[in-house]
Amino acid sequence: MLTNVPVSEKNILADVPEAELFALLVLFPCNVRILQQLHVEGRRFHDLRRWKEAPEVMNKEPRSWNRDGKTQEDFYQVIPANQGGRVRVFEAPKSYWLAIPMSQINKNPNLVQNPGY
Question: What is the model's pLDDT at position 110?
Fold first, then answer.
């Protein structure tokens, strides 16, 4: 119980908006649990899009170990990954959507392709 704590320190979350409290107390632990259970299922890209975290995560410069290192110390140096000229870019809002297959668009003339595809 918080009987010995001054009144000003009892409710440190009093000024936090309700939506942010929900995210902190409910959604974040759920996201962590999902990552623990499904970390090798190949769904991380879709989770990042669903949680609106993809721009921060996907637009970072890729890094890797030094594959050309001859010694253990050289190999385990983290360096920028060589992507062979390819740049990984997540463009919001386009990258949140997927392309609608042409076979589906051909079946339904009222269907319109998602922007950017």
Answer: 94
Rounded CA-CA distance 95/116 in Å is 9
Q: What are phi and psi of 10, to 5 degrees?
A: -70, -40
Count CB neighbours of 58 within 10 A.
16
pTM of the model: 0.45
Quote the CA–CA distance of 39 and 36 in Å, as a whole number: 6
- Say how far apart CA 112 and CA 91 lie, in whole Å: 20
Distance (Å, whole) CA 102 – CA 110? 13
Gap between the Cα atoms of 78 and 96, Å rounded:
30
In one letter, which amino acid is 12? I
Q: What is the pLDDT of residue 108?
A: 94
